Amino acid sequence: MKIGVIGDGKMGKRIQEVVQTYGDEAVTLTSSLIETEAFVFTEEPEIMIDFSHPDNLEKLLTYSLQKKLPLVIGTTGYSSEQFQKIQQAGQDIPVLYSSNFSLGVLVMNQLVQQATAALKNWQIELIEKHHSQKKDAPSGTAKTLIESIQEVRKLTPVYSWEKQPRNDDEIGVHSIRVGSLPGEHEVLFATTDEVLSIKHEAFSNRIFADGAVNAAIWLKDQPAGWYQLKDMLV
């Protein structure tokens, strides 16, 4: 299978490597994303994986809709309006979006929801760490974890505060950017004299690339629709 890979950063290059290990072929754009106004690949892809930048969304959707190509998106930092456009594309082509393609993070979201439901009166804090070159904060994975919590309890995320105590109806969100950390997410549940921590650490971006390629292989045989990573496990 020919898999079009959009994005030539760390993740894009890692995905190209992983595609080859599966016996498939990674095809890339003939010119840089900044220079091109419309996507042109070295060969016609059968499906596309995007790990680039939110600014490329219009070109990405235009090409995939014209060619009727399934689309896997791992780019983070989209606005709510851009998310609506991605979901609308799912009416015509298969689209799978995930802020994190790790199976461990998928299970972490489920565990966080269970803990939130069981520990109804406990305070919750979220800490996420990434390399210093990551552009968005909090991370897309952190936002997904917050959404998982909010599905159970109506708590408000707080990203900065000064000289005031934490309210019980808030989630403190802490973003750390340093060095070359691949990614770490931890959700703390705390009450008097007791703390429960649910934590995931990534030691290589290969786990995300592997998950994205597996998602592409699965998505190719799906009908038009809006999909999430958890749909692969049903």
UniProtKB/TrEMBL annotation:
InterPro entries: DapB_C, DapB_N, DapB_N_CS, DHDPR_bac, NAD(P)-bd_dom_sf. Pathway: Amino-acid biosynthesis; L-lysine biosynthesis via DAP pathway; (S)-tetrahydrodipicolinate from L-aspartate: step 4/4. Residues 104-233 form the Dihydrodipicolinate reductase C-terminal domain. It is an enzyme of class 1 (oxidoreductase). GO terms for molecular function: 4-hydroxy-tetrahydrodipicolinate reductase; NAD binding; NADP binding; oxidoreductase activity, acting on CH or CH2 groups, NAD or NADP as acceptor. NAD(+) binds at G74, T75, T76, S98, S99, N100, F101. Catalyzes the conversion of 4-hydroxy-tetrahydrodipicolinate (HTPA) to tetrahydrodipicolinate. NCBIfam families: dapB. This is 4-hydroxy-tetrahydrodipicolinate reductase. It comes from Enterococcus durans. The lineage of its organism: Bacteria, Bacillati, Bacillota, Bacilli, Lactobacillales.
